[in-house]
Amino acid sequence: MNWYKKAINNDDIFELIDDGEGLKAKELILKDNSLELKKIDFPSAESVYVLTAPYGKYIIDIDFEYYKEAIDWIWDINDFELSDYVEYSGDNFEKDFWDGVFSGSYVYHGTSSDRIDLIKKEGLEPRQETNSLTNSSNGPAVYTSPDYDTAAYIYDVVIRIDLGKMKSDGYMPPVSLEVGVDESEMRNALAYKLGIDDFINESLEQGLSEETVLIYGKIPPKYLSFGEENELV
C-alpha cells in the first residue's frame, strides 16, 4: 500500500505532484489517484502531458516543471507557432479548392440592387470590403459563400458565380479563406488533439466564417447569374 493520500480536488492533485520527488514518483502519484495522463507529441514543438483531472484538463510539461489549464495553454500559443503543434491543410487550399470544382459548382455573392446594372456590364471586381466583419488584412477580393442564404443574409440581391464554367475556360484566379480562419482552425485542431470537447473559438464568434471564400480576381459577366435561388438552379 502506498503512502500517498488521495486527491480530493484539483488543488490536491497538484500539491501531490509537487510533493513527488522525480518524474517517476510524480507519475506514480497520478496513477495511484486513477488520473489519466497522456503524452501528446507534436510535429515540431516539445511534447506535453495532458492530465484529465476531475474538474478539467491540464497541460503538464514533459519535465513536470509547470502545469496550466489546457484551454489557457492553447490560447497562449502565438499565432506564428501554431504550425509547430498541428499540421495545417490550408496551405494547399487554393489547389484543393479548384481540384474540387466540376460542372455545376457554384458560389454566391451578395450585393445591393443599385450595383446590378454595372455588374451585368463589367462583372464583379475585387473590392476592399468584407462580408460580415471589418478585416482589411484580406485585401481586395470578391467575397463568396457556397450557401445561397448566407450570401442573401444582409443583401437584397444574390449573384451566382459559375465556378465550373470558369474552370472549363481555364480561368482560375487565386482564392483563399478569410485571414484568421486558418489560425482558428489550427486552434480547433489542437483542442481536438488534446481531447477538449468544449473548446469555444472566439474568433469565429466575432464574425469569421470557415465557409467564406475570397476570389482575388475579376469575374466577367458571362460567369454570373442573377435572380432568386429557385430561378438560378
Give a short synopsis of this structure.
The protein has 10 helices and 10 strands.
Structure write-up:
It is a single chain. This protein is of the alpha+beta class and 233 residues long. The chain folds into 2 domains: 10-76, no CATH class; 89-232. The chain has 10 helices and 10 strands. The chain has helices at 10-19, 23-32, 70-76, 93-99, 116-122, 148-152, 163-168, 181-194, 202-205, 229-232; strands at 36-40, 48-53, 56-61, 67-69, 106-111, 142-144, 157-162, 175-176, 213-215, 224-226. Strands 1-2-3-4 form a 4-stranded antiparallel beta sheet. Strands 5-7-10 form a 3-stranded antiparallel beta sheet. The protein has a 3-stranded antiparallel beta sheet with strand order 6-9-8, with helices on one face. Helix 3 (70-76) runs antiparallel to helix 8 (181-194). It is elongated, with a radius of gyration of 25 Å. The termini are far apart.
Give the neighbour order of strands across the main sheet: 1-2-3-4
Low-confidence parts: 1-8
Number of strands: 10
Largest sheet: 4 strands, antiparallel
Shape type: elongated
Give the helix proportion (percent range). Answer: 25-40%
β-strand percent reads 15-25%
Quickly give the structural class: alpha+beta
Radius of gyration: 25 Å
How many distinct domains? Answer: 2
List keywords for this structure.
3-stranded antiparallel β-sheet; 32% helix; single chain; 18% strand; elongated; 2 domains; 4-stranded antiparallel β-sheet; disordered N terminus; 233 residues; alpha+beta
